[in-house]
Amino acid sequence: MDDVKKRSMLSFGKELVARIQRDEIPSLSAELAYYFLLSMFPFLIFLITLIGFLPLQVPDLLQMIDEFAPEQTMSIIESNLTTVVGQQNGELLSIGLIATVWSASNGINAIVRAFNRAYQVEENRPFIVARGMAILLTFAMIFIIIVALLLPVFGQMIGVYLFSTFGLSDTFLAIWAASRWIISSLILFIVFMALYYFAPNKRLLARNVAKGAAFATIGWMGASLAFSYYVNNFSNYTATYGSLGGIIVLLIWLYLSGMIIVIGGEVNAMFYERRKREA
């Protein structure tokens, strides 16, 4: 039985590598990294401007990014956002939202093309429908990310309330604080499920996209933490690229993120085709 599983896993890996080469995943990942970079700072500006209307602080947002991003990337993000923190007004909020939606929808359009290529289907939806879907997905992701920011704040309030009311131990508070990893993983999984379900020009069921969403969730968190550890402890991009070192690190991180998202779509397409063949 073990030999059968090993052969199946080896066959799966070979097929996945072949699909990565066939569908030009590295090139698509580079395109996604470009769109991610364009949309990242308008999105962060929008969130920081929005924070003035929510029970949040700027460190809450930065802490969420700091858990996964390398130090050099965080220094660039913080230095750029510092210049706009004091400009929280309605005009900046609207400009940030428009820039975010347009840039992010371009990125989602690139993801749609990648997923359609994975399923070997053509994009025949009207331009307005395809762009509208991309914009709706962008708004949905903005909403989910805001919820992800609010949950730890309210979660901490709930934990302190339970601690004081029922006299729970300090261990409970430590476990409660660590639950943010579970919350982050769950939110990421929901985001990827929605992306893999709606983006391809293919009628799918939730079960058809769950495996790819799980792969993308675990893969993105693992790759981000591993890359962050590598950059922070073993690599010195500043010595090679000078003042551009932080930007290079940011681009590589976004490139890896884009690659994992697209590979998750390929994983879904592989299981979908295998299920059709077996049927």
Describe this structure in words.
With 279 residues, the chain is mainly alpha-helical. The protein has one domain (2-278). Helix content is 85%, strand content 0%. It contains 11 helices and no strands. Helix 5 crosses helix 6 (127-166), helix 5 (90-119) crosses helix 11 (245-278) and helix 6 (127-166) runs antiparallel to helix 8 (180-198). It is globular. The chain starts with a helix and ends with a helix. The model has no long low-confidence stretch (mean pLDDT 77). This is Membrane protein. Its main location: membrane.
Gist of the model:
The protein has helices at residues 2-22, 25-51, 58-66, 71-85, 90-119, 127-166, 170-178, 180-198, 206-233, 237-241, 245-278.
Keyphrases for this structure?
279 residues; mainly alpha; 11 helices; globular
Strand fraction equals under 5%
User: Largest sheet at a glance?
Assistant: none
- Count of individual domains: 1
- Low-pLDDT sequence parts: none
Q: What is the CA–CA distance across the termini?
A: 23 Å
Compute the number of helices.
Answer: 11
Series of H and E elements: HHHHHHHHHHH
Average residue-wise pLDDT: 77
The outline comes out as globular
Class from helix and strand fractions: mainly alpha
What's the helical proportion of residues? Answer: over 70%
The Rg value, from CA coordinates, equals: 20 Å
How many individual β-strands? Answer: 0
